[in-house]
Write a structure and sequence with these properties.
Layout: E1 2-6, H1 7-14, H2 21-35, H3 47-66, H4 68-73, H5 83-90, E2 95-103, E3 106-115, E4 119-127, E5 136-146, E6 152-156, E7 170-180, E8 183-191, E9 204-214, E10 218-229, E11 238-242, E12 249-256, E13 261-268, H6 274-279, E14 282-284, E15 290-292, E16 295-301, E17 306-313, E18 323-327, E19 334-338
Antiparallel strand pairs: 1-16, 2-3, 3-4, 4-8, 5-6, 5-9, 7-8, 9-10, 11-12, 11-19, 12-13, 13-17, 14-15, 14-18, 16-17, 18-19
Helix pairs in contact: 1-3, 2-3
């Protein structure tokens, strides 16, 4: 049984008490509308990720309107302080697309784009009469991602729509980094937990629905087609292997790429506390700096009585560390070294 858990959502929801009562009430009403928006069973889970993303978007956008500190923190690309992406950007891995498409009286500009072996990020500016600085609670879009040959490889769409691709990314995070009248900037960060993402050179990102949730008007969904041609930086990877043995813990895989590092490890036993272990797991570099994942893919192997945990750390291959340390709660430290 697999489960994906998202720490960023926990952090957002823990800020609930910081919101003014009026905004909190509007958020609660909006979230309930989103939760009820789709009832049908999906081939690929959509309702739960969309509901979680919607809650995070609504919450982060209301914080932006009421908290100057939060606004200041959300100025950088992807709306978060992320050392992996920052290092990747410094090394030229951020693609400045600046393509603009118009459909159904909505203009969308794909400003920036990032992709490596395990993460995908995009920054879009959306211009529409449905956006009001004092009224917008939530903004989301549905998309399909096609490779250079035109084959669908990922989709984030309603469960009422067919999905042709295998699906690559999970744990989507959305951030509204600015809201003005008739304009907002929306940033997306997704992680590929269970597979290595293919090169997106020559790929196409197609936005097919935009959802606006306003306090006064409820949800307004606009179907259209906003297609963007993608370029991708050269994806670099480096494999790490275990230098020592740790009782009860086995390294499955450790690969660092341009702006992220995927680590998969197996622990003995089946426990409901695996989520807590995940968020107390750290990657430590040679300078003593710690890096934490925002989510995890948890696979419980009932027959083997073992659990496989896969995380993506915000760490870059450009840091060029010869050795790293994986610290997992209740286990000895696991030393990781570059595989030559």
């Amino acid at each position: 049984m697999k489960r994906y858990v998202d720490e960023s959502m926990k952090e957002d929801m823990n800020q609930e008490q910081e919101l003014p009562t009026s905004i909190r009430s509007a958020f609660d009403q909006s979230y309930e509308q989103i939760r009820q928006q789709s009832k049908e069973k999906a081939k690929k889970s959509w309702l739960k990720p969309i509901s979680v993303a919607a809650a995070a978007i609504a919450l982060s956008s209301t914080i932006l309107l009421t908290n100057d500190t939060a606004l200041a923190k959300l100025q950088a690309f992807l709306g978060i302080s992320d050392p992996g992406l920052e290092t990747a950007a410094e090394n030229g891995d951020l693609q400045y697309i600046t393509q603009t498409q118009e459909s159904k009286n909505i203009t969308i500009t794909l400003n920036n784009f990032f992709a490596d072996a395990y993460r995908l990020g995009s920054q879009l500016t959306i211009e529409s009469e449905h956006i009001s600085q004092n009224n917008l609670n939530y903004l989301d879009f549905e998309y399909r991602l096609f490779d250079a040959a035109g084959k669908e490889i990922d989709a984030h769409v309603s469960d009422t729509k067919e999905i042709a691709g295998p699906g690559i990314y999970s744990g989507l995070q959305f951030h509204l980094t600015s809201i003005e009248n008739n304009r907002a900037t929306l940033e997306l960060l997704a992680e590929s937990m269970t597979t290595t993402a293919p090169s997106l050179e020559g790929a196409r990102l197609v936005v097919e629905t935009v959802h606006f949730l306003n306090k006064e008007d409820g949800i307004t969904s606009i179907d259209g087609e906003w297609a963007f041609d993608l370029t991708s930086t050269n994806v670099v990877t480096q494999v790490y292997v275990a230098e020592n043995s740790v009782p009860g813990l086995t390294l499955q895989q450790a690969i660092v790429t341009n702006g992220s590092m995927q680590v998969s490890f197996k622990i003995n036993g089946i426990s409901n506390e695996d989520e807590n272990i995940t968020f107390e797991t750290a990657l430590v570099n040679g300078d003593g700096e710690s890096f934490y994942a925002k989510g995890a893919n948890i696979e419980r192997l009932e027959q083997e009585q073992q659990t496989v945990i896969t995380v993506v750390f915000p760490y870059s291959v450009w840091n060029e560390q010869q050795s790293l340390t994986l610290k997992v709660k209740d286990y000895e430290e696991l030393k990781l070294v570059k595989k030559e």
